[in-house]
Automatic annotation (TrEMBL):
It comes from Halobacterium hubeiense. Residues 121-130 have a biased composition (Polar residues). It comes from the Archaea. Residues 132-142 have a biased composition (Basic and acidic residues). Residues 121-142 are annotated as: Disordered. This is Lipoprotein.
Amino acid sequence: MRRRTVLAAVAALAAGSGCSRVVGDDPVEVRVRRAGEAAVENADVYCPLSATFLEAHPALERVLSSATTAPDGEWVVTDVDRETGEALRADLRERCGQVGAVYRYDGDEYRVRVLVDGHTVQNRNSSASSEAIRRGRPQERT
């Protein structure tokens, strides 16, 4: 009986702290980094990201703002719920026509990636966390 009480308390605590949302909604990773010279020169599509577009996608705006000061080649990352990520991805496709575009924001060029279970999807957004996380290159994190 005591075990059930403890388990119920832990479950209630986890649900109250938002853990069930993060785990239950299968979070998606939104990654942004400044585009390198070669990516900018070889891009087929350049897509401007307006202030209005970013207002509709605050998680993307947050990681873009953080990426402006990140070292070259460093991804700025945030996790978002699946629904928000799908909405961002659809809006980016509609706005830019393709996913592999070089995105222009505030006078600079960026790459944007959306990862679901470690696989690139296109673009996802909305964060359970309040801040973007800077991470090194993917090969450095393994």
